[in-house]
Design a protein that fits this description.
Elements (H helix, E strand, L loop, with lengths): L6 H18 L24 E8 L2 E8 L4 H8 L18 E4 L2 E4 L12 E3 L12 H8 L9 H13 L6 H7 L10 H14 L1
Parallel strand pairs: 1-5
Antiparallel strand pairs: 1-2, 3-4, 3-5
Length: about 200
Amino acid sequence: MSGGFGGASAIGRRRFLVVSTSAVGLTLPVPRSASGASPGPVPASSATTSTVGLTVNGVRRSAVVDNRTSLLDLLREHLGLPGTKKGCDQGACGACTVLVDDRRVNSCLTFAVMHDGAHVTTIEGLSRGGELHPLQQAFIDHDGLQCGYCTPGQIVSGVACIAEGHARSREEIREWMSGNLCRCGAYTNIVTAIEQTAKGV
């Protein structure tokens, strides 16, 4: 009769331990490559830095960075472009928004090495020949500035919002600007600035 505290249960437990121990000691087959040869040991990479080349605001730039460097830190700390702000550093506030190949990116959330060869536009790159971008001027005209900390990210994101065709109404602007979290007293003026600029494009 099985179960209980008799000898059968003790033997079952011993057999279980023997089988379990044997299973742990099994050597698993090594997968072979398509040529039939076993792959050699994979060397651990010792590279901790990389040279990253970018076209930033129309100018070719390069820097040697730690592979863990964010795009935000590359721009601010290595290339001397402090216009892009470090807010939450977790991708929640949008203060660090830049354009990478014309698409909005939270630069604090992405590694610089991932964008080698890309075209990056920061707030410093929006003006042309000393003339402000129309949205920069609209922020001034409509008093879309309060403390100003979120302003570079709001403007860069607003430029993309218009280019994407997502500025056809105030509701649409608010929806597509939702990645830029600041909602201070100037926010309604920010929406107006984007709306008016979109109408003029």
